[in-house]
């Protein structure tokens, strides 16, 4: 793998395939076709500019007409109008079934904004039981942050192969063709489809030059290509709808590439978790792995935040997440273990949604435990929760409000708090 967050990489699967010193020579070695993939406007500021040059067996332009695609029937897209906005706190059990390939199993929980306007996100889960084989997907509507939760993934992309397992994340940039195969025969996980600005590392401010997700731990694949003339079905998502066409060869035919736009993998266990060594735990923004900014500084289109294993040493402090109401909307998932604000009901593969200003925090059982705890240093182990936090309120998809995975008694976890006893 090639290391470094959005580094400028050069990689060739065949020696001599990559032009030296220029992008588009009159004749590329071996008759390869040069193609630029732009992830930002040509004129985006240099520090935000993302593009790569791909050298391939055939140009991607060589494909038949797209026709509407009938699969992936539970996939929804912004603008989200299937259900009215809903201020309720919502929580879902983990999906029980695995059916279809990665693409066809994508099931939308909630979303905001719209791909046409390039803002907002959608949250989906996949629960797949077959390889995509000779089917490839590309998403013109946004980049896809994939969070495997159960089972490994082998993701073939135009840029090379990425192997991922639970506790990894993979980000596939907008427009990049990819196929997901399942080494374990089945897999489940979460997807954040980001219609907005591409994910980047958060600024570190007074933390300094190091910490949180360190740039060198991000890995892009080395060039690897399939040389087959067997047909592939290529499905794309475009302005909310799915379309399919046939390509008479593998879309993964890139022999060499260079640039700073590529799919990447990150191992969440490498996150340098920072927390209090005195009292009161900081806001969870201290756990931000990646951020997609909106036009308003510090107010994200989406922050991807994790809750990794960590030491709790705070003195005289209520240690679990405190009660709060947030202008930002929070969609949470759990990759493994327990989450310290919930003593039950939030299982790995489950999900919760706390929209703008909805009151939430520890359930009654977790609260009681926390106020009675002997505050020794404690290591929270074997856990990994995460949050997609957005300035845009999420609207649930129709399925998400109808499924029996939706817990009807979620409000009940905040029942039973005793009234404070104020003297006088
Ligand atoms: O709601 C949650 O569980 C996530 C969360 C954790 C925390 O420590 C503070 C705020 C917050 O939204
Ligand atoms: Fe919260």
> Superfamily at the CATH H level of the largest domain?
Jelly Rolls
CATH topology of the largest domain: Jelly Rolls
Category from helices, strands and their pairing: mainly beta
Per CATH, the class of the largest domain reads Mainly Beta
GO molecular function, one term: homogentisate 1,2-dioxygenase activity
Keywords: Dioxygenase, Iron, Metal-binding, Oxidoreductase
Enzyme class: oxidoreductase
Organism: Pacificimonas pallii
Write the layout of secondary structure elements.
Layout: E1 2-3, E2 9-12, E3 33-38, E4 51-56, E5 67-68, E6 90-92, E7 107-111, E8 121-128, E9 135-139, E10 143-150, E11 153-157, E12 160-164, E13 168-172, E14 178-181, E15 187-194, E16 218-220, E17 232-238, E18 241-247, E19 254-259, E20 264-267, E21 288-293, E22 300-307, E23 310-312, E24 329-336, E25 351-354, H1 364-372, E26 378-380, E27 384-390, E28 395-396, H2 398-402
Parallel strand pairs: 9-17
Antiparallel strand pairs: 1-16, 2-19, 3-4, 4-19, 5-18, 6-25, 7-8, 7-28, 8-15, 10-13, 10-15, 11-12, 11-14, 13-20, 16-20, 17-18, 21-22, 22-27, 23-26, 24-25, 24-27
2-(3,6-dihydroxyphenyl)acetic acid binds near residues 281, 284, 354 and 387.
Enzyme class: oxidoreductase
Protein name: Homogentisate 1,2-dioxygenase
EC number: 1.13.11.5
